[in-house]
Amino acid sequence: MHIYFSRIGGAGISAAALLARQAGFEVSGSDKQETPYLDALREHGITDITIGQSYEHIAKAHAERPIDWLVYSSVVKLEDSGKEELRFCEEHGIRTSRRDEFLNMLIEEKHQKLIALAGTHGKSTTTAMVVWLCKELGIPVSYAMGAKVTFADLSAFNDKSEYFIYECDEFDRNFLAFKPFLAGITGLSWDHHEIFPSLENYNQAFRDFIGQSTHTIMWKRDALKLGLEPGETIDVVDQDFPSINDIRLRGRYNREDAELAMQLVSEITRKSVEELRPIVERFPGLKQRMELLVPNLYTNYAHTPEKIRGGMSTALEIAKENGQDVVVIYEGLTNRRQHFIKNDYKDCFAGAKKLYWVPSYLAREDPSQAILTPAELITHLSDPSIAEPAELNDALLKSVHAHLAAGDLVVAMGASGKGSLDDWLRENFAR
Question: What's the DSSP call for residue 372?
Answer without folding.
Answer: P
